[in-house]
Write a structure and sequence with these properties.
Layout lengths: L1 E10 L2 E11 L4 E5 L6 H9 L6 E6 L2 E2 L5 H6 L2 E4 L11 H8 L6 H14 L1 H5 L10 H13 L5 E5 L7 H16 L3 E5 L3 H7 L2 E6 L2 E7 H5 L2 H6 L4
Parallel strand pairs: 3-8, 3-9, 6-7, 7-8
Antiparallel strand pairs: 1-2, 1-4, 4-5, 9-10
Helix pairs in contact: 3-6
């Protein structure tokens, strides 16, 4: 579904990620883990078109996308839920969700997707006319994910969805990601909550200082010395 080959992304000519290659198969949950500043968010921004690689290629569903603008990439079926949620704080929950569906031209399909989102996140239906900025942190994260789902993506990219949430809500977010995947959406997950991200993933990659240093199944990486010492404190 997604093939990233040998990309480099720079800020002011200084590389933030170097020679990064990885792939995602349809139906998988793939996690990318790493410390702050490793380049995880930069990688997702390059895939969704917010940044342009200075080298390498990115292909999605057979289309080369590394120099397409973000709206064209989104229209191909790729949705990016950014770190920090990036909601339209002064708009209602419903308005945020409708904006997420702008690539979907069918009103009937938009309405159907909205009902599916409410099945996943019943609290959003109860908060429909409430401004996004007045929601709790957990509710805002649910809205950010729901807005990403409104475009009916084939691939949903989630950047730190558990950031700043209490443990009970972290478990809810990961359970929801599992359910979204079970219903047919492929997931690329960037996450500092290493144990949960690896337990959830079919496959995973470790990104350190802009380079992928290790890859394998989630279970395999959980058992490596690198993960146990550097990320789990064992």
């Amino acid at each position: 579904m997604l093939n990233v080959h040998d990309i480099q992304v720079c800020y002011d000519e200084v590389p933030a990620i170097h020679h990064v290659s990885f792939h995602i198969n349809q139906g998988e949950i793939v996690s990318i883990i790493g410390a702050n500043g490793a380049g995880k968010s930069t990688l997702l921004k390059a895939i969704s078109g917010l940044l342009s690689p200075s080298r390498g290629t990115i292909e999605f569903l057979g289309h080369r996308i590394d120099h397409l603008p973000p709206h064209q990439i989104a229209s191909l079926g790729l949705a990016h839920v950014p770190e920090g949620r990036r909601l339209f704080q002064h708009l209602t929950v419903l308005a945020n969700l409708r904006l997420g569906a702008y690539t979907n031209k069918s009103q009937e399909m938009r309405d159907k997707t909205l009902e599916q989102v409410f099945e996943l996140f019943p609290v959003l239906k109860a908060r429909l006319n409430q401004r996004a900025g007045t929601l709790s942190g957990g509710e805002q994260q649910m809205l950010a994910i729901a807005r990403g789902l409104m475009s009916r993506p084939s691939l949903l990219m989630l950047d730190e969805p558990s950031l700043g949430l209490m443990p009970k809500l972290v478990s809810l977010v990961f359970d929801t990601i599992k359910r979204i995947n079970a219903e047919g959406t492929t997931i690329l997950l960037v996450e500092q909550n290493v144990r949960e991200a690896l337990e959830l993933a079919n496959r995973a990659y470790i990104l350190q200082t802009g380079n992928i240093t290790l890859e394998g199944t989630g279970k395999e990486l959980l058992e490596t010395d690198l993960v146990r010492k550097a990320y789990l404190g064992i």
